[in-house]
Amino acid sequence: MDKSEILRVENLKKVFRSGSSDLVLFDNLFFRVQTGEMLAIVGQSGAGKSTLLHILGTLDSASGGDVYCAHVKLQSLTDEAAAEFRNREVGFVWQFHYLLPEFSAVDNVAMPLMVRGVRRSEAEKEAAAWLREVGLEDRAHHRSGELSGGEQQRVALARALVTRPKLLLADEPTGDLDNRTAEAVFHLIARLHRDYGLTSLIATHNLAFARRCSRVLRLEAGRLEEVLPQSLPVA
Fold first, then answer.
1. CATH number, position 113
2. Which residue would you say has higher pLDDT here, 158 or 23?
């Protein structure tokens, strides 16, 4: 694996059993991601974008092929090793924030560090720093239900990055937001990507956002093709 690569996908296949037949979601996917790239994955609903991200983040297993991430062959990991890999190497942001409603924003952000075994006081200090980074220092002790949709997603982003991962996987991170809030969240993701030297893969329907990424992959009819960002429609 090239030292400049953080991710290599070879001959990836995902098949679902549907009754008495097999449904091939995608097959023969090959691509590489260089460290520091911001890559958009576009395609119609049901094309397999979310499933692909789940496989790259070890939340799902492929039916065939190999994925190498941070020089680790993901298919070789035990369940325990995969969980540790996710906690240390990957940050996830989903369309829905999945914040724990009974906990405050700072508690939610601190949770991945506490799972790692970091002392509560240290975890909360780091969580507070990340809430400040996403502009929510003054909302640290509010529960998720007391936050707006954009604020909830910013808390989710802070939670994803509190462990200082190498790889950020974002699945429609602005899909539930109005246009103005979505723009603010995307701008924040782009700034944090740049400031912290992240490698980011963003599955999105928002082609305007995809155009602003360094690379674009289109997943369609089970195949993946690279397209020029500037070739995507403006609207």
1. 3.40.50.300
2. 158
Query: Would you place residue 1 in the very low, low, confident or very high pLDDT band (cuts 50, 70, 90)?
Result: low
pLDDT tens per residue across span 96-123: 888 999 999 999 999 999 988 999 999 9
Structural domain contains residue 235: no
HEC sequence for the chain: CCCCEEEEEEEEEEEEEECCEEEEEEEEEEEEEECCCEEEEECCCCCCHHHHHHHHCCCCCCCEEEEEECCEEHHHCCHHHHHHHHHHHEEEECCCCCCCCCCEHHHHHHHHHHHHCCCHHHHHHHHHHHHHHCCCHHHCCCEHHHCCHHHHHHHHHHHHHCCCCCEEEEECCCCCCCHHHHHHHHHHHHHHHHHCCCEEEEECCCHHHHCCCCEEEEEECCEEEEECHHHCCCC
> Above 60 in pLDDT, residue 183?
yes
